[in-house]
Structure formats: C-alpha cells, structure tokens
Give the backbone structure.
Amino acid sequence: METIKKLPTSIRFREDVLGRLKIEASRQHRSVSNYLEMLLMQWFHMDEPNEETKAAIEEARSRKDYSSSKLYSSAEELFADLDKEE
C-alpha cells in the first residue's frame, strides 16, 4: 500500500467560518485539518477507493452464499448469542 505524503500548510479563515468548521469537525470526531481534507476530497471527487479496496468490495459483493451466516433482528439478540458462546 502506498503512503500518501501530507504537507503542513497555513490557511486564513473568517472567524465565523473557522468556528463553524470546528463545530462540524467536532461533531464527526475529527480534527479541523482532517475534516477539511475530507470535504475537499469529496468536492474534487478524490474519495474513490483504491484498486485493492475496489477488488475487495467486488469480491465481497460476488459472494452469494450467505447460508452459513446467522442473521439477527436486533443488537440485543446478537449480544445474547455472543454471551452464550463464552
């Protein structure tokens, strides 16, 4: 997997815009830098998965045999089943 180099930079914002960025970043448990990067990547349509991830997604979608998978109707049912296994 290739490493993406990140470079430091400085940007000036209006006080109200920076305040809003901080609030929105906080809501998503992100740093302002990470939140801005995510927004810009979406804006420029750069958030597409890499080839390895695309292949893994396609492989997962192509699997039709879910007969051995147990399905749960609620989280409580799942946790009760997991507790039984211990």
Summary: The two ends are 37 Å apart (CA to CA). The mean pLDDT is 88. The helical segments are 15-27, 32-43, 51-62, 75-85. The longest helix spans residues 15-27.
